[in-house]
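debug: dumping io for the single-chain case to check the tokenizer round-trip. Nothing else runs in this session.
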Amino acid sequence: MLSLWLFLLPCINFVPQALSEKGLELPQYDGKDRVLDINDKNYKKALKQHSMLCLFYHEPIADSKELQKQHQMTELVLELVAQVMEEKDIGFGMVDSHKDAKIAKKLGLEEEGSMYVFKADRVIEFDGLLSANTLAEFLLDLLEEPVEIIGNALELRAFDRMEEDIRLIGYFKSEESEHYEAFKEAAEQFQPYIKFFATFEKSVAKELSLKLNEVDFYEPFMEEPVSIPGKPHSEEELVEFITEHRRPTLRKLRAEDMFETWEDDIEGIHIVAFAEEEDPDGYEFLEILKEVARDNTHLPELSIVWIDPDDFPLLIPYWEKTFKVDLFRPQIGVVNVTDETGATHDLSAASHLDIWESDLCVFFFSVLLSFFLTHIC
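debug: decoded output
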């Protein structure tokens, strides 16, 4: 896991309790230790005691005061989330990669700085921003059912608005259907990163042009879904199709899966677009970007990452200084995320950047795509 300590904010409330309104009292750390120091004597008990167990796998604590403070900040984030999630039966622990190397190997922990969530027989790596809010939201999503049922037109409209997400929807006879069961089993393999929906209503299926036991795959920002061939589908067939097609042509950098997105480069390359969705120029820029993605979604090696600076306000000054751009205007360019030795850099330390200001014309995008196809694909 890449370490972006600039992002690492505990999100703790420092407002005096007397100023808080009833119902808006943000959680404050109560000082109770809930995060376990996982060792050979307690890890089995911790796994059995909780419906989910979150383990932060970290390198040995260094002598550096700066690194020690960073470790303390991480621990404080975990303590606050552990406090908030205590009633949800979610446990938390920390595993030292040196001191607890044998346990880490038994549990399959590999990447220092990563958070691993143990749920039933699954191990899910948290690939998002390590803040209290983001981690808590991720865990709450994991507690939900892997498949959300759509039963009426109102729920269908909400589904249609989820253009930023990879999502699947299937039409099945009932919850007792063996084909729905296979769909549900596949959903568990990708929860919470990919959203699964199902309907048992003919009226909803008709609106979606779905036939019985058919499953549609929606790529982010695409207007039309792709029907997964060969219905009805087994769990293995669904998992294979999703794994093969899960890299979108255009995707948004989001706090909950930002590291997974950034590490999923094309031979060390990302096309990166900065645009504020709520800004008129940014909105127009983004709409053109969507058109380009839709017209070129057949190119498997094309991957564009959209970053809305409003989502990462603390990084705006850093990006502007590092990339020499004005993020109050839409920007797009090519980022090389590897150095000369091929080592992966984190987002805030990308070593090479060629960036151009956009005049919001289609010709610009055709030039960019020509460059990409010539030099990358």
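debug: round-trip ok. Residues 1-20, 339-364 have pLDDT under 50 and may be disordered.
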